[in-house]
């Protein structure tokens, strides 16, 4: 597979066409951002680690029957994915309260939800990715009612599978964000990345954050947690 035209550059990834025309090439950058890009830094090797973690998680989900855009890992920082048109929606699933939901709704930190909570955010930088409800999604024509039902079901399935996966390596899956795309034949396909940039992961024993919160809160070496997550995932497969 040969890298083709640059299609899109985001905060943490670059998407290229492939010369062969089969699939897209995803390049994972070392850039880390928080607060919609207000805080920004370069973390050498982060891209390589997130590429590997995302690849392992997407493969695991595929094995468990969750269709997703991952095809193969091409190099340390690059993966080959199916061509999909990304839906501008961020689907967040929460098992434990922290982050924006505590600020927004006054919920106590670390409250464990009896049922996973699914939230939707409109992926729009200039609007600051606002929280929206299912009616807004229909109104903005981001997805139809039946597409959204499919998206929610997949998000909850991913939550159940990843909760179990992380539990088996001593990690609590606190919350995470998913993105979906429309693939061939109008299929809804899980896409983007699943990594410590997009998940909150707490070590079961120490409670330490093994994710981007270390950067958000300026608590030191963010890569240490990411590396720990990768090593534990590798250790199980
Ligand atoms: O900030 P908030 O508490 O809403 O984040 C919920 C989850 O979604 C966290 O795991 C966070 O890393 C992820 N997220 C993301 N991209 C965003 C916003 C949140 O990956 N733009």
Automatic annotation (TrEMBL):
PANTHER family listed in its UniProt record: MULTIFUNCTIONAL PROTEIN ADE2 (PTHR43599), SI:DKEY-6E2.2 (PTHR43599:SF3)
Keywords for the protein's UniProt record, in alphabetical order: ATP-binding, Ligase, Nucleotide-binding, Purine biosynthesis
Documented EC number(s): 6.3.2.6
Pathway: Purine metabolism; IMP biosynthesis via de novo pathway; 5-amino-1-(5-phospho-D-ribosyl)imidazole-4-carboxamide from 5-amino-1-(5-phospho-D-ribosyl)imidazole-4-carboxylate: step 1/2
Protein name: Phosphoribosylaminoimidazole-succinocarboxamide synthase
InterPro entries in the record: SAICAR_synt/ADE2_N (IPR028923), SAICAR_synt_PurC (IPR033934), SAICAR_synth (IPR001636), SAICAR_synthetase (IPR050089), SAICAR_synthetase_CS (IPR018236)
Gene Ontology process terms (BP): 'de novo' IMP biosynthetic process; cobalamin biosynthetic process
Domain SAICAR synthetase/ADE2 N-terminal: residue ranges: 6-232
Record-stated family: Belongs to the SAICAR synthetase family.
PROSITE patterns to which the protein is assigned, alphabetical: SAICAR_SYNTHETASE_1, SAICAR_SYNTHETASE_2
């Amino acid at each position: 597979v040969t890298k083709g035209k640059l299609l899109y550059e985001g905060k943490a990834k670059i998407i290229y066409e492939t010369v062969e025309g089969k699939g897209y090439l995803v390049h994972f950058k070392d850039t880390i951002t928080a607060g919609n890009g207000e805080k920004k830094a370069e973390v050498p090797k982060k891209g390589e680690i997130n590429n590997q973690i995302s690849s392992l998680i997407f493969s695991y989900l595929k094995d468990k029957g969750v269709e997703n855009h991952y095809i193969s890992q091409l190099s340390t920082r690059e993966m080959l994915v199916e061509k999909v048109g990304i839906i501008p929606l961020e689907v967040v699933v929460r098992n434990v309260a922290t982050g924006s939901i505590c600020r927004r709704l006054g919920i106590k930190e670390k409250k464990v939800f009896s049922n996973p909570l699914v939230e939707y955010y409109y992926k729009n930088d200039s609007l600051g990715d606002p929280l929206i409800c299912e009616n807004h999604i229909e109104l903005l024509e981001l997805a139809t009612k039946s597409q959204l039902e499919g998206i929610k079901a997949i998000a909850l399935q991913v939550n159940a599978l990843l909760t179990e996966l992380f539990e088996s390596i001593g990690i609590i899956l606190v919350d995470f964000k998913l993105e979906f795309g429309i693939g061939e034949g109008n299929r809804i396909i899980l896409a983007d990345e699943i990594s410590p940039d997009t998940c909150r992961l707490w070590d079961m024993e120490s409670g330490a954050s093994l994710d981007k919160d270390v950067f958000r809160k300026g608590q030191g070496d963010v890569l240490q947690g990411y590396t720990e997550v990768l090593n534990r995932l590798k250790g199980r497969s």
